[in-house]
Amino acid sequence: MTDPRYAQCRCIRLGDSFSLNARSFLAGTSFDSPRYTVFPGFCDVHVHFREPGFSYKETIASGSLAAAHGGYTAVGTMPNLNPVPDSPETLEVQRARIRDTACIHVYPYGAITQGEKGEALADMAGMAPGVIAFSDDGRGVQSPEMMRRAMREAKSLGKIIAAHCEDNTLLRGGYIHNGDYAAAHGHRGICSESEYGQIARDLALAAETGCAYHVCHISTKESVDLIRRAKKAGVDVTCETGPHYLTMDDSCLQEDGRFKMNPPLRGKEDREALLEGLLDGTIDMIATDHAPHSAEEKSRGLAGSAFGVVGLETAFPVLYTKLVLPGILPLETLIDRMALAPRRRFGIPLGSDFTVWDLEAETVVAPERFLSMGKATPFVGWRLRGVCKATVCDGKFVYRAED
Hints:
- This protein is an alpha/beta fold.
- The chain contains 13 helices and 15 strands.
- The protein has helices spanning 16-26, 60-69, 88-101, 124-127, 144-157, 180-185, 193-209, 221-232, 243-247, 268-280, 301-304, 315-324, 331-346; strands at residues 10-11, 36-40, 42-47, 72-77, 105-108, 133-134, 160-163, 176-177, 189-190, 212-215, 237-241, 285-286, 354-364, 383-393, 396-400.
- A 5-stranded mixed β-sheet has the order 1-2-13-14-15, with helices on both faces. It has a 5-stranded parallel β-sheet with strand order 6-7-10-11-12.
- α5 (144-157) crosses α7 and α7 (193-209) packs parallel to α8.
- The radius of gyration is 20 Å and the shape is globular.
């Protein structure tokens, strides 16, 4: 006979005690049904909440609510802000807003260099107690000697360097992948080497320094191969890719700013290599690079729009529909890459956080229903399976669809 103290929902990748706690929490609520599936709270180590400095794009309040809507209970916020968190004092500006307004766990990054300018190291030691890692996200650290110094400092502090890998000398004004679409439509392209060349440099530096190294938003087949070989050689490296890189390529592009992100959508062979890397463990985790902008900033087409798309509210349904349901990726693997692997690498606890989904329900991606202030997504109109019904963080509901 079923114990009436526990809800009848299904729990995926939750230990026995966690499952019982989740079911006990949900018992007697509207979620007490075998129709619903409970997952560990998702964790995204690469988001942009734009505050302080750019709150017209997103705030910590709106971004964290959007994350809860997507099933996330923990995120890592990148440091391309104003002020840039490059010292304990500038970091505290962001931390104060997090304490006052976030509805989930928000973990800030500290900058690698002062002002993210690449000219002098930030006060990494002073920020270390308050950040999950260091990154100059939004731009690559151009100087190999500066990156070597940063890695040595991060190693001494027991922290990760999370690198946006981009060689500025190879960009040449490009804004989409230099593939077939760019050639056919007269657009300036970004070559793959601008990404994988800097990854190769950094992997050698990570091997030299022993630093824990994480590569942000990889998009090319060469990047996958380099990281796979580095792991086999014993380099302490992990990496992430995004839902759009796993489900789209440059053949999907349209003349619309909602298809413009950095790095860009690459070719079919790159997408296939990313999927292979996700399956064999080369790619450790999935991160959305949630990057909201104003409607005006995304209204200028591929050439003129700002780089960046939003992703927290669509990540799981997109990947569940496009990868799990067709049998490409096991559901348990997806949950590991979205919820557990990021926590393992960045030391982010799971606690009592979980999210409740109706995997039978269908939805059509409609940005006007997003809780994020950003609306630019390449998935507009996609019909997807999986609807988030509730998210629980620190033992309380932070999102309920019925509300």
